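Predict the holo structure. Ligand: GMT.
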Amino acid sequence: MNIGITVYPSYGGSGIVGSELGRELAERGHNVHFISSSLPTRLIELNDRVQFHEVEMMSYPLFEHQPYDLALATKMATVARAEKLDLLHVHYAIPHSISAILARESIKEKRYVPVITTLHGTDITLVGADRSYLPITRYGIQQSDGVTAVSKFLKQATIETFDFDDIEVIPNFICGDHYKRLPDSPLRKELAPNGEKILVHLSNFRAVKRPLDCVEILAKVLQKGGAARLVMVGDGPEYSAVHHRARTLNVLDKVEFVGKQPKIADYLGAADISLLPSELESFGLAALEAQACELPVVASRVGGIPEVINDGETGFLSDVGDTEKMSDDVLRLMNDDEMREAFGKRGRELAISRYSTGKIIPQYIAFYEKILQGKSAA
Ligand code: GMT
């Protein structure tokens, strides 16, 4: 198949999933054309089967805000015709599904290119549900030829908010060869020179991830006598607030801010426990990546997280903001090597058996085929 993929190229989970899906599809012999404003972060290699088409923006004094959605739609239509795309697969509903529908409609006399929208999370739960975007998001979902969601929770949230239920749940996936434990990594010594346990948080530092809770948890762990260091991987709007909180709690020297990293598996593989205290998480890709690296995850019990983490078996779940319990859970895992290792091993087993690329990518391919067959029959 010739597949067009559009993602937010920055650091969000949807961009990561869309990029890795493209790479996996290309490895299975499909031609993948990424159409976005810049090269997606995780897309390190372009080749004959993986191409990138940059959305060009014309600047004009009349445009107070540049109409990206229209430029994207134009590029999608151009690429769809030139590369004979079989379908457009967009990740994150807003504005990608709207641009794809516009592209589809603008060329449909020549070629009908079905639009598949994958819902990821805040496109439904925060942005899409906001009154200013709700009607257009509903339109984008209804007019897509196929819709997938990354968790059962997100499908249910879409039914409740948008009264739309023709959704296939295809969860996020992990490549067990890329994500694995690295117990002898030299990074471990660098991050924790005195043999402390390494707590790791990975996110885009948006308020919804509650990265401030991570330094609160660390401070409580230290107060209660634990020897730990916290590694914060990523960057985003809450960075300064987190830094400030670490300073005021007097734990700044125990926190390592490593910024955005191209190879996060190196950090996860070298750490001991992962923290994901989010306000909301439709799936929690960071938890899956951590579990594949045999890290127990201490997280909040929200959204799709309980679908990914088995409470008491691969991690511990708590109410949002309950940093007291989260710090106790971290200490339990720090102080009991046997429990930590058992949680880690079970986490990897479940990650691979439920979410490996070998299991999930064929689900996307089957979904594409179903939509294409439905369209050609029609
Ligand atoms: O909201 C974000 O943090 C980014 C967002 C995205 O779409 O880029 O992440 C969402 O999609 C990820 C990949 O499917 C999920 O693992 C995250 O749980 C989800 N984030 C939220 O629901 C907050």
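The longest strand covers residues 31-36. Residues 2-173+357-377 form a domain with the Rossmann fold fold (CATH 3.40.50.2000).
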